[in-house]
Amino acid sequence: MTLGRLAIAADGRRLLSVNLRLLASLYAFLGIGILGTQLAGSVLPASGGPSAIGLGKELVLGGLLARVVALVAWFVQRRIQQIATSAMASNDNNCVRWKNHFRAIQLVTLLIIIRSIVGTVEYVQGPDGFVISYEIFIYVFDAALMWLVMAIYTILHSGRLVRDAQWQKTMISAKD
Q1: Residue 7 pLDDT more than 60?
Q2: I need a labelling partner for 79 at 20 to 30 A (CA). Which of 29, 40, 53, 72 fits?
Q3: Which residue windows are transmembrane per the record (predicted)?
Q4: What is the Cα–Cα distance from 118 to 67, expressed in whole angstroms?
């Protein structure tokens, strides 16, 4: 959603490699699929059979890994898109501070990737693992990272970018 607002505010929809609606639908579908996989993996061991328990663990791990892969793929795609957009953008003043918002999207994605990797490692290690044995990992790699995500989006909210871009377009058209 933030990427869509950024593309609209920067008038850069033409520079995106994928239609915004298709991209949003794709990531919503991926999110639901990953959540469903993890949910099925969590419920499956309730049947009590040893094969069901093993399959459940594999499903949960597959969902966790799929989330990390999807986030990394998105991050790499956005980084390539940023390089292409920066090279192709000829009019930097068509939008207010769009580069800061793009950097914020990348930073937030990176923080969530780190959080997802730590969660995956925690799950792989199991209930007696090193990560789950120390609360500091929960504070640093879960709570602090999500607090940073919240703070970044509070400071650089994409709705403000769209509002500022619309105001700037209104001012430019009023001058003409």
Answers
A1: yes
A2: 29
A3: 20-39, 59-76, 104-124, 136-156
A4: 12
- pLDDT of 88 reads 47
Range of the domain at 72: 2-175
SS3 138: helix
**What type of residue is 24?**
A
Task: Render pLDDT for 154-170 as a digit per residue (tens, 0 to 9).
Answer: 888 777 777 777 777 77
Compute how many other C-beta atoms are within 10 angstroms of the C-beta atom of residue 173.
8
Rounded Cα distance between 56 and 128, Å, is 19
Comparing C-alpha atoms, which of 3, 5, 22, 13 is closest to residue 89? 13
**What was the pLDDT predicted at 153?**
87
CB atoms within 10 A of CB 107: 14
Continuous segment of H or E residues that includes residue 61: helix 50-88
Q: What tokens were used for 108?
A: 């937030």
